[in-house]
Structures are given as C-alpha cells and as structure tokens.
Amino acid sequence: MKTLFRDVFYLDGFMARAGRGDLLVDGGVIKSLGSVSEGDAEGAEVVHCGGTKALIPGFVNGHTHAAMTLLRGLGEEKPLKQWLEERIWPVEACLSPEDIALGTASAILEMVKTGTTCFADMYFEMEEVGKKALEAGVRCGLSRGIIGENEASLSEGLRLADRFDGEDLVTVQLGPHAPYTVPLGFYREVVGAARDRGMGVHTHFLEASWERTHLEENLGLDPVSFLEKSGILDAPSAILAHCVWLGAREARKITGSSVTIAHNPSSNLKLGSGIAPVPDFLAGGLPVALGTDGAASNNRLDVWEEMRLAALLNKGVRLDPTCCTAREVLRMATFDGAKALGFQRCGRILEGWNADVVLVDLDQPHYVGHEPATLAQFLVYAGSSADVCGTMVAGKWVYRNGEYPTLDASGIGEKVRRARTDLCLRAQGRG
Ligand SMILES: [Zn+2]
C-alpha cells in the first residue's frame, strides 16, 4: 500500500524547519521526501495537499491508562490518595475484560482523532488492550500494573511479553505501580525480572509530595537511593511517570541511565499534585516524554494539548520564555516517547522511518504567516488537535476526515455508554 502526499509541508527530523515537496509512504515507511519519481509513485493513493497541509510525526502518549475512559468524571476535584482509594479503586475492582476492551477502544478513537499513533498503557487485562490496539492498527507499549506483592500480576506481565512477541506494533514493559503500592523487595524482584528478560519498566514516581515523605519514613531512602536500590536505573529502559517532586540535583544524578520521565502536566494540575521541573530535566539531557495519564484525571487524551501546556506552564513558572521550546516539546511528544517504549525509527519524518504521521490542516486563520523556520512554533502555540485531518500508523490510515477506517466508532460509542452505566451500578452494589 502506497500513499503519495503531493506538495505538503513536513517537519524535518530535528523539528527545526519545515520542508515542502512530495512525500511517499510505501511498505509502512517513509520511502522518499522532497521529490518523488513518477515510477516510485506508481499505484499510490494520491493526497493533494496544495501547500495547505503539513505532515508531522504521530504523537506518543507516554503515560496513560486507556480504559479509564469508563471512569471519566468519577471523584472529580479530590486529592490523589483520596481519589484513588475512595472513587477509583472500588470501581476498577468491578471492571470486566469486556469493559477494558471497550474502554480502550473508546480511548483509541479519542487518541487517533487528536493525532496520537502510539500509547504507553499501564492497567490490567492488558491482553485486551493489546488486542484492541492491533485491531485498530495503532502502536502501544503494554504494562500490567502490579500492586502489592503480587506474583500473579508479575507472571501476567511476563506472559504478555510472550503473547505479543513478534508484533511490530506492540512492546511490553513490566509495571510496578509505584513505590508506595509495591514493597521494595518485590519491586526489586519485578525490575530484576525485566532485566533478565530484556524488558522495559513503566512505573509512577513522585507524583505527589507525600511520596517523598513515604520513601524517607518507611524505607529511609531519598528518591535517588530508592531508584538505585530498586535496580531501575540499570533496567533496559524505564518510564518514570510524573516526577513532579524530583529535584534538579536528583535529576542530574539519574541522567545517562535508562530513565525517561513521562511528564503529564494536565493530570498533575488537575489533581493538585504540582508542576514537574521539566526545564531542569531537559537542561541535563534527561529524556522527557509527554503523557495524558488516564481520562479520569485529565480528562482529555490529547497529547497536542499537553505539548502546548508543557511549553507554556514551564515558561510561566520559571519566568523564562526561552525554556521548553516548541522544538523541545514536539520532540518530547513524539520521538522521546517512542524511544522509551523501544520503538525504533519512530517519531521523526525521515527517509526509512516508520510512517506514523499526522496530517494537519494549515488552511486556517491561525496558521497565516507560518514559514519554514516557524512552523514548529505555529503548531505548538497557535495550533491544536482540532487541526488534525488524518492520522496514519505504519502507512495505514487510522483516522481521516472524521472517519475511523479500522474501528466501528458509532458501535463503540453505544456499547461504551451502556458499559459505563452497568459499571457504576455494579460498583454501587458492592459498596
Ligand atoms: Zn498514571
């Protein structure tokens, strides 16, 4: 399957300048860009862009819990611990594998519509999540969330790696939920298993300020000592979601390790958790991905919005308009997330790289004046996911002009509404 984009703007590999020309997708990858020969383009579907559209790399949601679309709106405006213990965990206990599949499908509809081509998911019944992602044709990193000293969950996580072995669109990580929900000894066992199997780790870290106190009072450890003791710094790769309360000096100490931080600015603001010191992470070269977190704490699954927020928020907090540049947040929202999940050649528009791309409509008032050197800034500061007119993963359309070629959107909508009502009734019954 070939697609030829005629006369399109495309962001270069460093997100610095936009090129303009033709771009050919063939065999799931970007075959050529700039000028494409007639022979190479033969048999391709032609998308005439007429210099009014841009191709940008697909967004990678670096931390989410997709099926939480079913829990959206529950326990609004409560602090993290109370929110989890009183509203979220009791309802999650009632979720069936069918619910997880439906909630995930609903999340995928939202994600592809807003330009996301890949998501890092931590939840349970993860086989259902992986199956839905494959059915939809989107990339994902799967981790079975592990809470407590739970050998069964660990085995499930490991089995998941066997189940999706050889799938190009899926990678699998092990997911110890957080230092406050998994005892250190077992946390080490999980990380050790990841190391033995060459798998990545995906965990929550220092989301709320009390987590630092928890580490000190219960384990006698500062955050860096915990990361060292847990073995996570030597894991093949590790996504630490949040790190709102990680200091600049601590960040420097873990730079150069396997760690990528997943920054979730909306969720951190909404739960009143704080603002992660992202400029400090970036200054030392610590990779940062962007995530939405679950739909119950955001409440959107829109990485474009996280990108804009990350760029603005940190400038305001630091009184420094030069930090978190458009180029930096574009890279965070694309390449850094894909890399952290172990996807090679994803997140840049370059020859030979995976054709995970988003088609953006520039024929709108807020793009007037964009130039090759300023398109990145126009996209981040003036644009929004409402400008997405097509999303492609590995060369296949998963969203185009309001249509979802791989998913039955209206069928999912109806089923998910019913599932949500049933779920709330079951949860009330238990309570
Ligand atoms: Zn989370």
Features:
431 residues; alpha/beta; Urease, subunit C, domain 1; TIM Barrel; 2 domains; eight-stranded mixed β-sheet; eight-stranded parallel β-sheet; globular; binds zinc ion
| Low-confidence region ranges | none
Q: What's the pLDDT, averaged over the residues? A: 96
Q: What do we call the CATH topology of the largest domain?
A: TIM Barrel
Q: How many individual domains? A: 2
Cα gyration radius (Å): 21 Å
Distance between the termini: 52 Å
Instruction: Name the overall outline.
Output: globular
Main sheet summary? 8 strands, mixed
Describe the structure in your own words:
With 431 residues, the protein is of the alpha/beta class. The protein has two domains: 2-58 and 347-400, Urease, subunit C, domain 1, CATH 2.30.40.10; 59-340, Metal-dependent hydrolases (TIM Barrel, Alpha-Beta Barrel). 40% of the residues lie in helices and 23% in strands. The protein contains 15 helices and 16 strands. The protein has helices at residues 38-41, 80-92, 97-113, 126-136, 151-163, 184-197, 210-219, 223-230, 248-254, 265-270, 278-284, 303-318, 326-340, 375-382, 409-430; strands at residues 2-11, 18-26, 29-34, 45-48, 53-57, 59-64, 116-123, 139-146, 170-176, 200-205, 238-242, 259-263, 288-290, 357-361, 388-393, 396-400. Strands 1, 2, 3, 4, 5, 14, 15 and 16 form an eight-stranded mixed beta sheet that branches. Helix 3 (97-113) runs parallel beside helix 4 and helix 13 crosses helix 14. The longest helix is centred in the C-terminal third of the chain and has 22 residues, at 409-430. The mean pLDDT is 96. The structure holds zinc ion. Residues 63, 65, 204, 241, 293-294 line the site of zinc ion (ZN). Zinc ion binds next to loops.
